[in-house]
Design goal:
7 helices; 4-stranded antiparallel beta sheet; 2 domains; Arc Repressor Mutant, subunit A; about 300 residues; about 35% helix; single chain; binds cobalt (II) ion; alpha+beta; Creatine Amidinohydrolase
């Protein structure tokens, strides 16, 4: 990794830290999820300008995920989403910023009635223990074991089929996976790479399933499509988001086509394998999930937290 790349990661992380500080102060019960997501996404571009992002600016690396209670990940509000945040909700706010494809990824959990403070603490403590081990050069299997041990010691379960990941340019989920439980995986973090570590703690069994619902998509493999709206959407996402995830609601804002035309286009792009969907991932009904996440950069022999 050259200095320029390392600088891009560091700047993406610095902007993201500010975005998160601002979001933590402004999110309140009663707000609509749509408003929360739009405010955060707008603040990425604004804080990017303020902190001197290069000409294309700082952009969301993926749609803000606002997953509540048993929803563990991949929920982003639709453009007509009326859901409002409740005091009793446990909301995971997962945000990414990219500078020219270089991604910083972070997440935090809020619960305004404090009934699940211990679970949030379990996820946060697991993250800080995992980060400490990562800096000492532990294997990804060992990092996973530490996360599992920390979360179980607090009386919760880690989610086994969600994991941290490498971050590559234009690639949000690059190998290796950084598990949230003990694995026989001796791979170590390598110099010249960025990673995200993201423990999830739950009072459920620790296993998420894909739901039928998806508002987040990403380019998979561009192919010929017949429908003119599908072609238009494909051209737009390839140019605008490349291989990073995007929200249907972003297309609604940026493309002049009817809701019906956009739906048809997305359906055809999914069917032909041009794009993939990220279904909302859920624990069992009535269970609760908390998450904590930070990104690190391994550069010139040293691991630093970028956000
Ligand atoms: Co992540």
């Amino acid at each position: 990794m050259d200095e320029k790349e390392a600088e891009n990661y560091a700047l993406a992380g610095k902007i993201l830290q500010k975005v998160v500080q601002k979001a933590k102060k402004s999110i309140e019960p009663g707000q609509k999820l749509l408003e929360i997501a739009q405010n955060i996404e707008k603040s990425i571009e604004e804080l990017g300008k303020e902190l001197g992002a290069p000409k294309k600016g700082a952009k969301p690396a993926f749609p803000v995920n606002l997953s509540i209670n048993e929803n563990a990940a991949h929920y982003t509000p639709d453009f007509e989403d009326e859901t409002a945040l409740k005091e009793s909700d446990v909301i995971k706010v997962d945000v990414g910023v990219h500078i020219d494809g270089y991604i910083a990824d972070t997440a935090f959990t809020l619960n305004f009635d404090n009934k699940h403070a211990k679970m949030i603490e379990a996820a946060e403590e697991a993250l800080s223990n995992a980060l400490a081990l990562a800096k000492e050069g532990a294997s990804v299997g060992k990092i996973g074991a530490e996360i599992e041990k920390t979360i179980k010691a607090k009386g919760f379960n880690p989610i086994q089929n969600l994991s941290g990941h490498g971050l590559k340019r234009w690639e949000q989920h690059a190998p290796p996976s950084i598990p949230n439980n003990e694995r026989k995986d001796e791979r170590k973090l390598e110099d010249g790479n960025a990673y995200a570590i993201e423990p999830f703690a739950t009072n459920g069994e620790g296993w998420v399933r894909e739901s039928q619902q998806a508002g987040i998509f990403a380019l998979e493999e561009p192919r010929q499509v017949r429908n003119q709206y599908a072609r238009e959407v494909l051209g737009f996402i390839a140019e605008e988001y490349q291989t990073l995830p995007f929200a249907e609601r972003w297309l609604q804002e940026k493309l002049e086509m009817s809701d019906f035309q956009r739906k048809i286009a997305l359906r055809e792009l999914l069917k032909s394998g041009c794009i993939r969907a990220f279904p909302v991932l859920r624990e069992a009904p009535g269970k609760i999930v908390a998450q904590a996440e930070k990104s690190i950069l391994f550069h010139k022999g040293k691991i630093t937290e970028i956000c």
